[in-house]
Amino acid sequence: xxxxxxxxxxxxxxxxxxxxxxxxxxxxxxxxxxxxxxxxxxxxxxxxxxxxxxxxxxxxxxxxxxxxxxxxxxxxxxxxxxxxxxxxxxxxxxxxxxxxxxxxxxxxxxxxxxxxxxxxxxxx
Length: 124
Hints:
Layout lengths: L5 H8 L6 H12 L1 H25 L5 H14 L10 H8 L6 H20 L4
């Protein structure tokens, strides 16, 4: 029987995996084609790089968390995490009670979804 150690799983899910940025770019292009057309290839790469770099400041080292951070950067703006008009984002990201990054990311996702639904409706 094959067993995979936690370290190996972490390596596959790390934002440092070499295939992560190109996969992230393709995912953003599929999920947000209008945004990506406006940004162009260099702009999309900047969003991904920024999402990885800035997300790491908040403890996001897994691909799913960094993906969320990049998505929200694209949807809410580059400084959504510090925007006084979006105080919920900063509160969640700076909350030291979150010792698990996935729990923090899930809470951030839920709050962002609630916000976006209230602003633009469930169907956008």
